[in-house]
Design a protein that fits this description.
InterPro entries: MT1774/Rv1733c-like. Keywords: Membrane, Transmembrane, Transmembrane helix. The chain crosses the membrane at residues 29-50, 143-165. By secondary structure, the protein is an alpha+beta fold. Helix content is 50%, strand content 16%. Strands 3-2-1-4-5 form a five-stranded antiparallel β-sheet. A hairpin with a 5-residue loop joins strand 4 and strand 5.
Amino acid sequence: MVAFRGPKVWLWRWRRNPLRRRADRLESWVVLIAWTLTLFGGVAAGLMAAHSVESGLARQRAEWRPVDAVLTQDAPEPASRSGTATENVWAKVRWTASDGSEHEGRARVDPAALMGARVTVWTDAEGLLVTEPASESQARLRAALVGGLAGLFVAAVPFVGGRLVRGRMERRRMDQWDEEWARIGPLWERKIW
């Protein structure tokens, strides 16, 4: 059975009405609080996450440096995959850190590189191997994606919570109507004529 609700009236929950129950007023506050937290919480969380990611990636661009390294072994042959472009392979390299200390590690290199070839690797402030830092445009894209996802997930919590509370209130209201109908319904069924 579908009930006719009539035309949509804005802010009907806050209008004065002698038939408005306490539960209606409570539901109006639940809706207001849930939507406020959904909107502002999601936006705030998204902006904070985006700023955090972007500043972290900017710090990496400032601290990480490219260093010349030397292959200490021939690069292995890539695993053959028909129809795909040749990918870089892992090989042992040796480099000198900014403090003069020698380091060894594994880095991605061209599969045709031979022992003694010079390759560029990226190191952090301690001289350890890291990946190439994200460019500014890549950092903006990553920050926007992370910020958007964080905002959505944070906004989902009050939204879903508000829906659950409203659903519970609706079930309670229907139960109360059932109880009242159980009392009043039999009185209407009597035939007077």
